[in-house]
Design a protein that fits this description.
Layout: H1 2-26, E1 36-37, E2 56-59, E3 62-65, E4 70-73, E5 76-79, E6 85-87, E7 90-94, E8 97-101, E9 104-106
Antiparallel strand pairs: 1-8, 2-5, 3-4, 6-9, 7-8
Length: about 110
């Protein structure tokens, strides 16, 4: 009887450990990196938007900060989330600093 009780106690502890690790491992998924730059991005490049593509929304190209300077990322297709529209990412000035606002779907 004592053996069964000790196994039952260990079973509870063994279940809590993986659950705690899973909770800790999933936390960074929701964190977004904040990019703050004191140098304004270059002017947007003109891109030719390809013809419509069923089930996808066009995400225009943009400048991304790469530690020492801006690098151009060309536009690409985003799979559509029905009932929502795509709001593209953009640089936003706040005082002397520039912040990147990530593109996202809006309902």
């Amino acid at each position: 009887m004592n053996v069964l009780r000790s196994l039952f106690k260990w079973r509870k502890s063994l279940l809590l450990v993986p659950m705690a690790l899973a909770a800790l491992a999933s936390a960074p998924v929701f964190a977004q990196q904040v990019v703050i730059i004191q140098q304004a991005p270059p002017p947007m490049r003109m891109e030719v938007m390809p013809g419509p593509r069923s089930g996808y929304a066009w995400d225009q190209g943009h400048w991304r900060w790469e530690g020492r300077g801006y690098v151009w990322l060309p536009g690409h297709w985003q799979p559509v989330r029905y009932g929502a529209h795509w709001r593209p990412g953009h640089w936003q000035a706040r005082g002397p600093n520039w912040f990147w606002v990530e593109g996202h779907w809006v309902r």
